[in-house]
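Internal tracking record. Fields below are filled automatically when a chain is submitted to the structure queue. Please do not edit lines marked as system-generated. If the sequence contains nonstandard residues, flag them in the REMARKS field before resubmitting.
Queue: standard
Priority: normal
Entity type: single polypeptide chain
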Amino acid sequence: MMKLPLFAALIYIGRAAAVLEEVFAWKELDFDWPNDEFKNDLVKSGEYVAGNNLPLGVDRWKDKLFVTVPRWKSGVAASLNYIPLNSTDKSPKLVPYPDWKANILPKKGETPEENHIVSTFRLKVDSCDRLWVMETGLADILGEPSQISPPAIVIFDLKTDKVIRRYNLKGTDIKGDDSFFANIVVDVTKDTCDKAFAYVPDLGGYGLVVYSFADNNSWRIKHNYFYFDPLHGDLTVGGVNFQWTDGVFGLALGPPNENGFRTVYFHALASTNEFSVNTQVLRNESLATDPHSYELFKLEGNKGENTQSTASVFDEKTNVLFLTQIQKDGVACWNPRRKLEPANVGIAVHHQENLIFTNDIAIDSDRNLWILSDKMPAFVYKGLDPLEINYRILKIGVDEAINGTRCVA
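SYSTEM-GENERATED OUTPUT FOLLOWS
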């Protein structure tokens, strides 16, 4: 098992056995520049503005911890990056993946390479040593948005750092200017690498895109459960009040059943309800797009007030669903063997300062729960103080996180 940095701070989170490690923390992000001249040129041209780089997505593969930096604003140096986990720096520089060239915005008239990433929010490492990246192709989202390349699923071979495939979403997958694809989950096992499916929620267009790796094809699904709840779009995080209309966003896959299908648990960001559907429905294009399949989608229940969530992930060993809690400065858990109601939703981790806006979570092969917090509402609406810690990546063992909660079966 890989050794993580010895500097990691220990944060006690209420229950005696549960300890949350602060692995990395930054006031502002910096990058592993090829040389000083390269950095200075980007600073002079406005292509690197330190305060405009906000980390958002996280996942681990062996000794690499991948971290995304979406191009919310101009001045993002590289969107797809990793941190070597043997780093001894508590605020390490991000290393662009697969290299710098793939992350620099193309000049006018240039054709991007197959491995080029303009702006990505979430990514997923699968059990076949592949990295799936949901590339939005959209730069300067909060300023003067520019669609540099089509939304695409980009799949890397992590053993060679080469692109296996780049799949541009079809016109029928996209709902005009409303669509916004910020997440991706991958349905695959080590024995079914060539039969993988990816599920991509459209939080702005209120839909779900299914991609079949074997067929190299995709289709869009509509359902009322993908919409936001107008009663739960008013949010306050870190003292910042705002209103969002984000629809389906968080997705998590339960364990395979005897037929190889799974339960997909999903929710809109602006909602406190949790829903589910079997992947047997999603993988079948004719069934998934048939209006008569409406009742095959299920309401699991309500998590309670102020339980809006950006991301979720499922631990198969304990049968526990983890969900970020952006208004509660933490991460919740729920075991689907229990009815979904507020009394059965546990608080796995909580910290009023270090977990302000838990934007993403991931479980690695060692069953560590990784958490990225980034104060995003303040970044978007108010501005961050460059003299204080704004971004953190923390981790805790899954079993520790649920110990003493209602999530233990």
